Here is the input.
Amino acid sequence: MSEQTTSDTTDDARESEPPAEKSAGALLTRTVLRTGLVVLGCALLLFALGQAFGVDLLGPAVEFLGTETGRWLAVAFLALVLISVAASGWRYRRPPA
Here is the structure.
């Protein structure tokens, strides 16, 4: 019976630890990849909608990002991505002491 109790506490400790694939490097790499895909997807969406309706939507978006305000908004977006990466590590609870 004592073997069962030891096994249960070991299982509880494993559940509270982040999985091995959720290490900081893997998490950051996955986040950068997903962010790049979102940016590429948004650019493709603007291009496709512009072609479908005969309006240049991609040009004004690029011009806006070329302004000082647009660059600071891009920096703010990247900061939000970094904050979300850091906050995702807080999801795992610690084992009870």
